[in-house]
Amino acid sequence: MTHDERRMHFRNAMASLAAAVNVITTDGPRGRCGITASAVCSVTDSPPTMLVCINQSSFVHDVLHDHGNIGINVLGGRGQEPASVFAGMTGCTMEERFERVLWRPGHLGVPVLDDALVTLEGRIVESKTVGSHSVIFVQIEHIDLRGQAGGLVYFDRRFHHLTCETA
């Protein structure tokens, strides 16, 4: 199997791995910035730490590192539009992305999306380069739980709304 074939085989396998959909945001001297990411997970609760994987070729990558503060906006079931907008699927400029969603400044000055299921705000404490991506470790300093039912996942290269059934 060639390198390109192995790469595509891996990408196809990862399409079978359901993942929460998040919009990663920041603000600072280089302006507001945001990107949709599904490679986000918890690391530890002592201290509360998350990891976020961002392609190094993305404009947002360098802005996140320059600003140092990150908002991880976990999208609920109604979050397909912001997910598409921040994934660049609509062709919007960065400024237009923020004009198309309701948001407010968070405790660390990062944009917090009003429709997020959960928002975690933190500071970058470490970053590791792995191939084409940076694995960014974010120590969480503020959490806002909104208590909406349902979530948004990315699976089979599409967004899917999860609903919660009550017993």
Task: Describe what this molecule looks like in 3D.
The structure is a single chain. With 167 residues, the protein is α+β, with helices and mostly antiparallel strands. The chain has a single domain (20-155), classed as Pnp Oxidase, Chain A (Roll), CATH 2.30.110. The chain has four helices and twelve strands, in the order αβββββαβααββββββ. It has helices spanning 3-14, 59-67, 80-86, 94-99, and strands at 19-20, 22-26, 33-37, 40-45, 48-55, 69-75, 103-105, 111-113, 116-130, 133-145, 151-155, 158-162. A seven-stranded antiparallel sheet has the order 3-2-6-9-10-5-4, sandwiched between helices. A three-stranded antiparallel sheet has the order 1-11-12, with no helix packed on it. A two-stranded antiparallel ribbon has the order 7-8. A hairpin with a 6-residue loop joins strand 2 and strand 3. The protein is globular and about 50 Å long.
